[in-house]
Design a protein that fits this description.
By secondary structure, the chain is α/β, with parallel strands linked by helices. It contains nine helices and 23 strands.
């Protein structure tokens, strides 16, 4: 059946507003698995997205939100399942989308007829599904798909503090099933989970079944599992459950694991995991340490470097020009009532994000999309001169054909090692995307190649001319 469908358009819209698949979902690119293949095109996922509550928070108008991402050419968003929820004020986040009105909070499990949920309203029944939740989830993923936006479906999250565990439907105080009478650090274990493992596995299978039709999707097992007692054995079990749940389905979705804050060398990866995500991954050591895995290395959460744009823009350029395949800035300007990303958050916010920054991410995305990046690899060796002490460089190259470089700090005059030939070049102002200087390079020029003066953040594009 799939072979017959392949002659049709890549995806078909159905009456429900979702996407019926006619081709493979998001996959690793067969020629370079450090990047994605999505709807027939080599793809890098780049975005500045909301704090994960678009589905579980019914006060959040995700249509306006998705339209704002689309307006800037951004193609990724991350959403949490509702197995974890936050109270307002957690992590000092103002108007946190992951902290909905407790009485309205949606999650995979249905409300019972018994009052007493810690967040307000009735307790949950872990044996019954909330069809309103799954309807909203599918509509969200479907509408994202129509806009070419890939959804990271994050299934679980550790209970960082008692205040998060107090609100979880998995806590026995919040459900009518007598399940989950344990401490917050035992929730994501195989042997101390208070009968929650069966509930968690059923939730995963239900989610996989509901989202089986979508091509714009991948699953992340658990957000920041290096906190809160989450065991590796439990994570690997959830990976196996996803694989088992999709075994009888025509389409298989990519699976992600969140590895560490900063960087960490991955040892003995699960063969079914295709995306390895890091948080706050700067400098880009996380890519270099794990590039030999031949999988996508992502940076899917930023923050804790103030509210200004500069650090997060630098983090994006350095990570992706080092060979990363995914970058998601955590953007606090998206809240209920300001789904267009215009919320003016306080300076105490743990991160940034705004419309200007999203435009800067479009500059980065357009820059990378202008290359045949599948044929490139991390390689700054074509820049042979010693850079000034206050200048850093990350670069991708297909030697003799195309080169992309990002300089944080002014490089001054640089020497290039390029095979004989004629090349076009262009210097670009990173913050605006404005071309500053361009022209033609020949073998006689590359020894004394000057960057535009008075610019502390530049991108360089070089291509061989026919």
């Amino acid at each position: 059946m799939l072979g017959k469908l392949s002659a049709f358009p890549l995806w078909l819209f159905v009456l429900s507003g979702s996407i019926a698949l006619a081709a493979e979902p998001l996959s690793l690119h067969p020629d370079n698995p450090h990047y994605f293949l999505f709807r027939g095109k080599p793809t890098i996922l780049i975005t500045s997205a909301e704090h994960y509550g678009a589905v579980l928070n019914p006060d959040f108008d995700y249509i306006k939100y998705l339209d704002e991402l689309t307006a800037h050419g951004l193609n990724n968003t991350r959403t949490f399942s509702g197995a974890y929820v936050e109270p307002q004020g957690a992590f000092n986040i103002a108007k946190n989308t992951l902290a909905p009105d407790g009485k309205k909070f949606l999650c995979p499990w249905a409300r019972s007829d018994q009052p007493g949920y810690a967040g307000g309203g009735n307790k949950f029944d872990l044996t019954k599904w909330d069809e309103a939740y799954f309807k909203r989830l599918k509509d969200f993923v479907g509408r994202a798909g129509k806009r070419g936006i890939v959804v990271e479906m994050n299934l679980f999250c550790p209970m960082y503090e008692e205040q998060q565990w107090k609100l979880s439907p998995q806590n026995d105080a919040n459900n009518i099933n007598g399940i989950g009478k344990i401490g917050k650090s035992d929730v994501h274990t195989l042997d101390k989970n208070g009968k929650l493992l069966e509930v968690q596995e059923k939730m995963v299978r239900k989610t996989v079944a509901e989202l089986a039709e979508f091509d714009n999707l991948y699953y992340e097992v658990c957000n920041e599992p290096y906190f809160g007692g989450v065991t590796m054995e439990w994570q690997l079990r959830i990976v196996d459950v996803i694989v088992e749940a999709e075994k009888g389905l025509p389409q298989k979705h990519l699976i992600s694991m969140n590895i560490a804050n900063g960087s960490k060398k991955i040892e003995k990866p699960h063969l079914a995991v295709s995306i390895f995500n890091f948080h706050y991954a700067s400098p880009p050591t996380a890519v270099a340490e794990n590039f030999s895995l031949k999988k996508v290395i992502g940076d899917n959460e930023t923050g804790f470097k103030g509210t200004a744009d500069d650090h997060y823009r630098m983090e994006a350029w350095e990570f992706l020009l080092a060979g990363g395949g995914l970058y998601n800035n955590l953007d606090y300007s998206f809240v209920a009532g300001h789904e267009d990303g215009t919320f003016e958050y306080p300076k105490s916010q743990p991160g940034g994000g705004n419309r200007k920054f999203r435009q800067q991410m479009k500059v980065l995305k357009d820059f990378l999309d202008s290359f045949d990046f599948v044929r490139m690899k991390p390689d700054p060796s074509f820049i042979t001169s010693k850079l000034p002490k206050d200048c850093r460089c990350q670069a991708l190259a297909e030697p003799g054909e195309q080169y992309a470089a990002y300089f944080h700090g002014s490089p001054g005059t640089v020497s290039l090692d390029l095979p004989a030939g004629t090349y076009s070049f262009e210097w670009i102002e990173v913050a605006t995307g404005r071309p500053i200087m361009g022209g033609t390079l020949t073998s006689s020029d590359i020894g004394k190649f000057s960057a535009p003066p008075d610019h502390s953040e530049l991108a360089l594009k070089i291509r061989r001319k026919p």
